[in-house]
Every structure is written in structure tokens, then in C-alpha cells.
Amino acid sequence: MARRSGFLCFALAFVACSARAAVVEHTFNVGNFSVSQLCQPATAITAVNRRLPGPTIHVHEGDTVVVHVNNNSPYNITVHWHGLFQRGTQWADGPEMVTQCPIRPGHSYTYRYNATGQEGTLWWHAHSSMLRATVHGAIVIKPRNGEQGYPFPKPDKEEIIMLGEWWNRNVFDLARDAFLTGTPMDPADAYTINGKPGDMYNCSGGNHKRRTYKLKVQSNSTYLLRIINAGVNTPMFFKVAGHTFTVVAADASYTTPYKTNVIVVAPGQTVDALMVTDATPSRRYYMVASPYESAVPNPGFSRTLATAIVEYAGAPRTSARRRPVMARMPAFTDKSTAHRFLSNLTALVLPGRPTVPLAVDTSMFVTIGLGTAACRPEQTRCDRNQTVFAASMNNASFVLPTTMSLLEAHYRNVSGVYTRDFPDKPPLAFDYTKPPSDMDDITTKSTKVKTVAYNTTVEVVLQNTALVALESHPMHLHGNNFFVLAQGFGNYDNNTAVMRYNLVNPQERNTLAVPPGGWAVIRFVANNPGMWIMHCHFDAHLPIGLAMAFEVQNGPTALPLPPADFPQC
Ligand SMILES: [Cu+2]
């Protein structure tokens, strides 16, 4: 990693402008190598610089990030910088065929963007096929003036905790097979903490150190845990036995300090939590990640736990022979614990930071969920007359373009790549919590976007439907954060919901786990010109259509020219 000092210093009200912005430069060599986990035969995985998780990008607010991606893997790939706004660097956002054509095997692309106006924990991941299962890493954005700029007591130490999912099979093959046959994706074989499954998995021949992550701590110290769910299809509960947390941020947005002994983090989300090491130092403690499965009926998932070990410095040797203290985890289906955590967070309102817009220009009511549709020609391994899984938003099941990215078509004003008719409401109103009988025929495969003028304040009610299953879909918006005004179960009712809107300190996020069989209301100001996909952050649902995109027109700022090395289809 290279770090060069520059002389740029944008004045931001919420940070002291005491340090110079720097350029942080990385080279990501994406390639395949063989890994064996769970005592299974080695499988080929794709990863950056042969590391799982991949390298962490450490920056300060206001820095410029330059990442040279060399694709030495056999697959098409792109990298997305999850949660980074990409203001003025729209060509660097990364989702395949939304922003850019993929980087072909043997080719390179340099992503350049700024970490301006954002602080906290974000992450990067592949946005092609299901490769993000192993192509991912953390992004840590510290305040411009360093740790003294935190709006909470400075921790003694910081630790990145990346939760993940592991398949014994090659994930590219797995995703391709699910798509071609139109069947649900196989559940993961294990969950992981910093790439390792931990001791709860049967693995008689395994090397303990290689499969269990260990966090060595000092007694009576404060640790800032930067927890990222890099899992592909599974929200997680997270606990450390004998310890409690104070949540101070989520999705790189500061929160009112929130005390809890369990953290809930859906794929795409991050949580920053302070943990004081005040437990008996002679014992060791399990850090545990367990699946939160909200789907009813449930398609099946791995009922297992990922564990790591928290060990105190100076603990007697005998403690290593005792089994670590286990955390009591919520039931896998405990939606009330999940909802309590996810709906109780509020923003820490700081001077100079954006606040929730009170007036709305465009209101949308968007149903999200699974459904069925006829097998498509490109799904070559299902019967043409067969009904397969499809997911949709307002019954539009999103299909990525194949010839040109949405952003490029928008920029070059090319027609035929997408249409501007994404509906503001579903074609049929019904009791969304129950499966209707005649829904199949009105779900269409299409590439519809919602076009909004620069600076439009958009409100979206996201309503989960029960067509195949009630399920909490983690909805992620690119290019913007949104405020979460309210969440609830059942059908959204404007009359009662409006009274519950938090217009004082609503949490700000880039990914929201919409309550299963419920709804959520989000608001954002579309002041970032470009093409921004909003989609379910389960890789089981994105390729089958749980997505749409916002086309934000130019305003005082406009899209820049694409970079010279921009990948071509
Ligand atoms: Cu989903």
C-alpha cells in the first residue's frame, strides 16, 4: 500500500480540518487458488492477493483511494466499494452491467474514488456472479484528524470482524447452476469469522489454529469491533460470551450509543461496537456468529455456528485446556430479537451532517419479494414450460443488460438498454402478507429504472410480500445513504405509519433489512447524478431479479467522462 500526502483540504463542518488528504493506493491481484476447509478436499476459490478476507483499505476521511485491479482469475469480475458514495467518480462504483462491463480475465482496471464526507466501517466486494463469497475485504475510514475525531471515547484497540459464508463447492459453478436450472441456491456449508469456521464444525483432521480465529485482548480495555456481514445469503446474530457491546455506528453512520449483548447484521451491513474486556481473565470466551433465518416457509439453511476465541493476555496456561465459555445465542428464527436491534438504532445527530429531509418530492410504494416466472431462454437447464424462481420489485423482475452498462447507456443516451417506466406502485394491491393465487402472469422480466431530477427527495415504502416466502430482504442502495423513518410488520398503512415516522434522529444506512412480512420507509435526496442500483443483498435473489435502479439526472454537478481504461463489453 502506498500513501502519499496531498495538499487538498476540503472544509467540512463536522471534522476538524487539521490533516492533509492523502492518496491511498493498492494493487488487487484477483486470482484462483486452492483452499481446504472443514477437512474437505481442496476447492478452487477466487480471492484478492491470495488472502481471505482480502486486504483492508485504511483511509482517513477526505483521502483519495486508487485500486489497480488485475484480473488473473478465469472469471469476469468487477469490484464494488460498498457504501462509498462515488460522488464525481460514478464510473468506479462497480456493479457488473449497471456501472461497467466486467474486467475480463487477463485485463485490468483502476478504480479511483474519494472517501469524502464519510467515516466508519465499509467494505469492498466482487459484484459479479457470486464471487463476493471470497472476494471481499474491509474499508476503514477514520476521521480526518484521526481517532481523536471519534464522537465516542477513544478505544484502546480496534479489530475487524468479517462474517462470511463458506461453500465446499466452487461458488461460480454453484451460482451458474442455480441460475441455469432456476432452482434455489444450495445453502452454505459453514459460516465463518475472519475466514475461519471455528471449533463447532466436525473436522477431525483439521489444524485447530488454521480453522479458528483468535482475538487476544488486554484486560479492562475498550475494543472497537468493526463487524461486517460479508455473508452471501444469511443475516447473522453476533455475540461474545461474557461481554456486552455499545453500538456507536452502523453502515459508516454514527449512532446514538446503544447498549446490547447481541448484534444483528444482515449481508451488506456493518456495525461498529465498543466492547470492554471486563470478564474473568483466566477464562477464554467464544465469539459466535449464528444464522438469522427469517424466511417462512424456509428453503433450508445450515444450522451451525461460526466461532472465534477471545483470550486474555496473561491468562494461565491451564485456561487453554478448558473449553471456552459459550454464548447463549438467539433461536435461528428469532425475529423479535432481530427486529428489536434493527429498529432501535437511531442516528447520532452531529453539526454539519445531513439530516432527514422533511418534504418529499416523489413517493413510491414498492413491493419486494420472491415469485415465479416462466423459464427464460438463457436458463438453458430448465424446461421452457417450467415455472422457476423469480424475484421482483413491483412485479418487475430486473434483468441486467448484456451489451452495455446502464450507466454508459445513460451517459451516451443510447436507447434500448433500459426503459424509464419503473412503476411507483405495484400493479395489484392485495394483502401482501398472504400469497395471492393469480400473481404469476403479471410479473415481467424487464430492465426498468426510475428517473428522477437532480435534488429530488425520494421516499420509498418497501413492502415485503409472501408470494413464495415471507423473508427479510436486505435492500442496498448504491451511491447514497438513506434515512430509515419507520419499520413494522404486516401491511403498510399510511394513516398509522406516518405517526411513527422518526423525523428527529432516524438511522442512516446503505442497507436495510426490511422486516419479514413487513415494511420499511426510507428517504434520500437524489443529489448524486448517475445510475444507482437498489437491490437485495442476497446473491440468491439478485440474479433472479430483486433489483431496480435510480437514474439521477445531472444538476449543478454532472457525470464526468469515463476513465481511459474503462472496461468494454
Ligand atoms: Cu432477497
Describe this protein's structure.
The chain has 569 residues and is mostly beta strands. The protein has helices at 171-181, 208-211, 335-344, 406-412, 494-500, and strands at residues 2-5, 22-35, 43-48, 57-60, 64-71, 79-82, 108-114, 120-126, 136-142, 157-166, 190-193, 213-217, 222-229, 236-240, 245-250, 253-260, 263-265, 270-276, 284-291, 306-312, 362-374, 387-393, 396-398, 444-446, 449-452, 456-464, 474-477, 482-489, 507-509, 511-513, 518-526, 530-536, 547-552. A six-stranded mixed beta sheet has the order 11-10-13-18-15-16, with no helix packed on it. The two termini are 30 Å apart. The chain binds copper (II) ion.
Please tally the helical runs, counting DSSP H or I stretches of 4 or more residues. Answer: 5
Report how far apart the termini are. 30 Å
Mean pLDDT across every amino acid position? 93
Q: What global shape is seen?
A: globular
Major beta sheet, strand line-up: 11-10-13-18-15-16
Instruction: Tell me which ligands are bound.
Output: copper (II) ion
From the alpha carbons, calculate the radius of gyration and give it in angstroms: 23 Å
Largest sheet: 6 strands, mixed
- % residues in beta strands: 35-45%
Number of strands: 33
Computed structural class: mainly beta
Low-confidence stretches: 5-18
Helical residues, percent: under 10%
